[in-house]
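Posting this for the archive.
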Amino acid sequence: MPSPLSLRTVVAPVFGANCYVLSAPGGACVIVDTGAGTAQDVVALVRTHALRPVAVLATHGHVDHTWDAAAVCDELDVPLLLHEADAYRVADPFGTLGLGASDGSATGPLAEALRAMGIDPRSYREPSRVVTFTTRPGVADDLDLDDLGLRALHAPGHTEGSTFYLVELTNGPAVLTGDVLFAGTIGRTDLPGGDSAAMARTLRDVVPLVAPDARLFPGHGPATSLGAERRSNPFLAG
């Protein structure tokens, strides 16, 4: 049985995307959702705590969660892992969102937010090593990542490959929910690849597979718990 993990958070300056560093007592770690502007802080955190990176993971392929993946993967010499259904997004981050290309024609709030932070949309780099995984419907599949004990649970709706990562923390079970489930709400389904019917099935069939006492760590905003969301989140009511 893997030892409980520690969780540390780095918040990206662009769209406030949460980047999580999960580490085992022996030092093995994974970094989840490396949003724009997180690379320097993540690498510093890993080195300060003498952690041993195994991989960078993405809860889904939207670029506000993968922008710094190439920088972090290169610096720490690890691959990017994500569900195979979202892998196509990594090669074309703006086009797969319907926002133009990363050649300077990118438009919309994301491109403007990057430019406001002094980040040129043309500077995006695809990670050199991208490893995909598949999951069985309705099953939390083990990811073979050292002794970290991570499990992946496919939760489509926000994107085709959106994934919950289930872990055991020092204070109990937890789930990294990406942009599927937030405190008080759920992720949008109106972007390319989003699917409101798939989201409804995820909420109905996948969320109940999560431990009822699990803490939830979303892709944006504060942590919450499944119990709190069942009581107050209108999308989980009933």
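The radius of gyration is 17 Å. Residues 6-232 form a domain with the Metallo-beta-lactamase; Chain A fold (CATH 3.60.15.10).
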